[in-house]
Amino acid sequence: MAIQLNERDHLIFKFIAEHKVLLEKHISWFIACDDKPVLIRDRLRKLFYLDYLLCERHRDTLPWWTTPTKPLVYMLSPMTNGLVGVSEDLVDLNDCSLQRHLLEVANLRMLMLMAQKDAQIANFEWTTNERVVDTSQMELDATVSFERGGVSYKAGIINHSQTEEELTGSVSLKDKIESAFESNGVEMVFIISRDIVRQQMVQKAISDKLSESSMNKVLFATHQEIYKSGIVKSRWQNAMERTISCFVEPLKESMSTGRMSQMTSTQAITA
To answer: SS3 for 237?
Structure first.
């Protein structure tokens, strides 16, 4: 049974080709952008049955995934690779750890789109870095730009999932972070770790190696923290494990917060 591919189908192919593997929820948000995400499950199933997509259940648990079942992962089939002019991947996309790394990166993009829909940020743009993914390397996975409170931000994103042994052997860790500021033109680098243990390993490894000017520009958070609190409201830390405020508060929020603080102080004095 043949189907007529539509514009949305080609968008699905485009986003999967960019991220290599995606979940249904990711695809829904990427297509919808700042509008309400659409249900595309039936279309994804049909594209799978007609060999346009490959589909399998992810073998690992994802701590930021909210359902108890392991999610379905979608990839482009060889037929669709040829259709959209994408070369065959040189890495094994069926590898569970690689899939997880790629899904974590896509999840960050989705959460930033959620922040834009909730008017926490504006004019959000995402660029996925084109490279063969090696999760043992500390390089930018994406660059993002957005506005908040009238201030523009440009940041590099590193999804970090290294073990202690891999981190110890990464002698050029500081250089890779510093080069992100120079070659990628970013103002901040977000390092998102799989858990607090890995985050603290990286912070400890670079706390005495970063320049003073870079110290508060390299920001740390975990996937669980960002999924729970969102990009803007997460408790970001610097390399010294100090929580810092890295985003300007919009004027209305600042005024509201100021009024609430004033009311609270008045009530406390009155009491």
So the answer is: strand
Burial of 47 (0-12, 13-18, 19+ CB in 10 A): buried
Reading the block at residue 39, the tokens are: 């249900």
pLDDT band at 261 (very low <50, low <70, confident <90, very high): very low
Which DSSP category does 188 fall into? Answer: E
Helix ranges (H only) for 118-236 are 164-169, 173-183, 196-206, 212-215, 223-233
2-55 pLDDT, tens digit per residue, is 688 999 999 999 999 999 999 999 999 999 866 777 789 999 999 999 999 999
What stretches of 1-58 show up as alpha helix (H) in DSSP?
7-19, 24-32, 41-49
The H or E element that residue 84 is part of is helix 78-84
Angle separating helix axes 96-117 and 223-233, nearest 10 degrees: 20
Length of the chain: 271
Q: At what angle do helices 7-19 and 41-49 cross, to 10 degrees?
A: 80
Buried b / exposed e along 166-200 (16+ C-beta atoms within 10 A): ebeebeebbeebbebbeebebebbbbbbbeeebbe
Structure tokens at 152: 């523009």
% of residues, the chain, pLDDT over 90: 43
What is the reported pLDDT for 23? 93
Residue 230, SS3?
A: helix
Per residue, the 3-state secondary structure of 243-256, as one string, reads ECCCCCCCHHHHHH
Q: Could you read off the pLDDT of 162-197 as tens digits, one per residue?
A: 655 455 444 456 777 777 787 778 999 999 998 898
